[in-house]
């Protein structure tokens, strides 16, 4: 990369969002550059290459909806796609649409400063300076891994590795492995490695509710039926709340008889998928504690049926609400029937320290380990922006702007950060990410198209040189208040997880998502466009 580069749009990040943003903005005829700190495309799926990494959105939806021809022809073998298949798919899209020419890797954005006088961003990267009229941040939702603070961690003589920084050269066969973290990531990696390691110990803080994913090969007939109804499928997904292609019912749990309830839970358990279990049997599991407890009882019953050792089963059974990101698995509880797999309740018996040879618990028990895996999650959304020096109008930094918690109008734009857009930023819909990302990028493209047109129209009359589009403070505050209001009554608010930033010690939990549903969000976006980009100012100098 030359020391100074001038482009019209800079896309930061080359994952699902960055690839589509690069495509969409280059379709407008803009000079676009896309950079990523990673060595290649993939975003989340570039980094999260731990054993067993799999999307838990069904394969037919874990792709772009806009390439209709590709939807019909691109192969997928199973109901869920594993990480290498997702990377292969994204590479295929990039090659097919000749997007690599816009992309450069191992280029990290360090800071970005808006210059009002020339109407553009000056972005300092690890490889030089890029000037861009538009800055489109596609930094991902879960990109900053978090590590636990445990005394003695630096003394461990074995290998320590975070799942989001996996190294393919790590040798697991026949090793004694300890793992911290049993969220989506932890349960995937444990299920994958249990058969090959000598010992696997899960140091578990909160047990999790998980249901079968329904993974397995797809038949030709199934594929044919999906292909023949793809338009209808996407129409339903884009109009739904969670965007997972599942029925979203309103039936109330306690209005069903105990037998009907059992049958309804059994049906979604058999079909598979975490979101199906949470939203397709009954419509009130996430808002009614009594209903929620019925689902909890059902899953606890399954754990008792699956796990033969009552000690392990007791540790694996959650007692709190079923109100975190719903998990699904390909045989997670089953691995605890293996003699080489154990679960340790570190709430009852905390880790006292990591030593040279392994982990010591508070009761003095010592576990010899060769490898410690951290599946301990991420500093979600905000965490991606905190290390960056993003400075908007009048020297406002993003950290100052978000001192009371991260906000963005429509999840997309911040007041005083002109011509800057966020994809999967704070307060975007809590729904299946690919269709959320597509919706955001299509809206951002519409904003930029409008801004460009306004600028060019005026330029021909010799009136202006620059354009800047940004959310008003009122619009951003209003959106944030709406997000707070929408999450009221949700049981998700009563559990601690990354969804509210509650996994970061010392951070005040905030509403990081719009809980109004994908369909309503898309209707809102269309309304904003129809209403002459309500809530945005177009500043022409
Ligand atoms: P999650 O869902 O944030 O899970 C992190 C796990 O790590 C969870 O089990 C945590 O326990 C555990 N954790 C975190 N810190 C510690 C410490 N200090 N000690 C012990 N255990 C700890 O991250 P994932 O990567 O699994 O999933 C993130 C998202 O990726 C997921 O929701 C999907 O959207 C895809 P806790 O439950 O907090 O007690």
TrEMBL record:
Source superkingdom: Eukaryota
This protein's record includes keyword Glycoprotein: no
Taxonomic placement: Eukaryota, Fungi, Dikarya, Ascomycota, Pezizomycotina
The protein's name in its UniProt record: Cyclohexanone monooxygenase
Entry annotated with the keyword Flavoprotein: yes
Transmembrane portions of the chain: none
PANTHER family reported in the protein's UniProt record: DUAL-FUNCTIONAL MONOOXYGENASE_METHYLTRANSFERASE PSOF (PTHR43098:SF5), L-ORNITHINE N(5)-MONOOXYGENASE-RELATED (PTHR43098)
Keywords per UniProt: FAD, Flavoprotein, NADP, Oxidoreductase
Molecular function terms, GO-annotated: flavin adenine dinucleotide binding; N,N-dimethylaniline monooxygenase activity; NADP binding
Pfam families: FMO-like
């Amino acid at each position: 990369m030359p020391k100074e580069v001038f482009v019209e749009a800079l896309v930061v990040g080359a994952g699902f969002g960055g690839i589509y943003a690069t495509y969409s903005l280059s379709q407008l005829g803009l000079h676009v550059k896309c950079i990523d700190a990673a060595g290649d495309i993939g975003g989340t799926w570039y980094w999260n290459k731990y054993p067993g990494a799999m999307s838990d959105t069904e394969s037919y939806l874990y792709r772009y909806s806009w390439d209709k021809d590709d939807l019909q022809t691109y192969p997928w073998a199973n109901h869920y796609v594993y990480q290498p298949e997702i990377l292969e798919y994204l590479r295929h899209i990039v090659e097919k649409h000749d997007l690599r020419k816009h992309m450069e890797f191992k280029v990290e954005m360090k800071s970005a400063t808006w210059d009002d006088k020339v109407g553009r961003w000056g972005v300092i990267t690890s490889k030089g300076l890029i000037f861009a009229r538009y800055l489109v941040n596609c930094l991902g939702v879960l990109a900053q891994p978090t590590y636990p603070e445990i005394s003695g961690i630096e003394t461990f003589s074995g290998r320590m590795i975070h799942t989001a920084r996996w190294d393919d050269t790590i040798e697991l066969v026949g090793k004694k492995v300890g793992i911290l973290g049993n969220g989506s990531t932890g349960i995937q990696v444990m299920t994958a490695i249990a058969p090959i390691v000598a010992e696997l110990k899960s140091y578990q803080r909160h047990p999790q509710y998980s249901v079968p994913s329904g993974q397995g090969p797809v038949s030709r007939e199934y594929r044919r039926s999906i292909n023949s109804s793809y338009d209808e499928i996407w129409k339903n997904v884009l109009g739904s709340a969670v965007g997972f292609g599942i029925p979203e019912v309103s039936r109330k749990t306690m209005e069903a008889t105990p037998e009907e309830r059992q049958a309804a839970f059994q049906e979604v358990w058999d079909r598979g998928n975490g979101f199906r279990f949470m939203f397709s049997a009954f419509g009130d599991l996430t808002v009614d504690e009594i209903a929620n407890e019925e689902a909890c009882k059902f899953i606890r019953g399954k754990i008792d049926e699956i796990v033969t050792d009552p000690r392990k089963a007791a540790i694996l059974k959650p007692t709190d609400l079923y109100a975190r990101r719903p998990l699904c698995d390909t045989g997670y509880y089953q691995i605890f029937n293996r003699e080489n797999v154990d679960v340790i309740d570190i709430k009852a018996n905390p880790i006292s320290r990591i030593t040279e040879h392994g982990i010591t618990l508070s009761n003095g028990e010592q576990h010899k380990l060769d490898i410690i895996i951290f599946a301990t999650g991420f500093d979600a959304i905000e965490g991606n922006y905190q290390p960056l020096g993003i400075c908007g109008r009048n020297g406002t930094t993003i950290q100052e702007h978000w001192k009371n918690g991260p906000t963005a109008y429509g999840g997309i734009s911040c007041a005083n950060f002109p011509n800057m857009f966020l994809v999967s930023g704070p307060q975007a819909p809590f729904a299946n990410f690919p269709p959320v990302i597509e919706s955001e990028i299509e809206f951002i493209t519409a904003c930029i198209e409008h801004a460009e047109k306004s600028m060019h129209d005026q330029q021909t009359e010799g009136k202006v040189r620059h354009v800047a589009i940004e959310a008003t403070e009122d619009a951003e505050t209003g959106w944030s208040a709406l997000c707070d209001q929408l999450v009221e009554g949700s049981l998700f608010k009563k559990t601690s997880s990354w969804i509210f930033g509650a996994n970061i010690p010392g951070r005040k939990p905030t509403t990081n998502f719009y809980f109004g549903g994908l369909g309503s969000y898309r209707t809102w976006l269309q309304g904003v466009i129809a209403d002459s980009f309500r809530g945005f100012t177009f500043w022409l100098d």
